[in-house]
Amino acid sequence: MASEVEIANLAAVRIGTASRITSLDDDRTVARALKAVWAAERQAAIRDGSWNFAAVRDALPALAAGAGVIWPYSMAYRLPGTCLRLIEVLGVARADYQLEADKTIVCDAPAPLYVRYSIDVPEMAKWDAEAGAAFALRLAWRIGHKIAGSAFDAQACWAEYRAAIAGARSTDAMENPPISTETEDDSWILARQGRWRG
Questions:
Q1: 163 domain residue, yes or no
Q2: Structurally, how many domains does the chain consist of?
Q3: Structural domain contains residue 142
């Protein structure tokens, strides 16, 4: 966990500038550049990671009949406006639903539809340390040329960011066991086939 200022200064270090800030409101070029992109890049970093710290669960009611074209599916559900990224639909195989316009999920599952999704988390103190470090790299990538000019290698910084996201995702995933979508009938079938391990 790190503060907003610590994340900002990590980005400044990666860019290679000696300038350090005490607030995003500082009257410095790097602070102004960071402040201009902060919210958008924070949300993009959350979308890229599907982080546990930003994940919430919800039970979605079905949309009224005729609220949208859903053929060949029978049901439609709308994610709330706070959703940045759908992580999973619980109890429904990925091949059995689609996410479409207006954050609408179409499928054949009856209401309510249980989902997990990412939301914005503006308070950096709530962020995982690895996520914060990755966010700093994304910030550096976004404003690096503005601060350091052609000396800044945006491509290398982006590669570092993607590697950081991949590593942090792996750590994040280990914190949660996989969610089983098996039904009792599935367990019975596996047992009959000799593949049930209890």
A1: no
A2: 1
A3: no
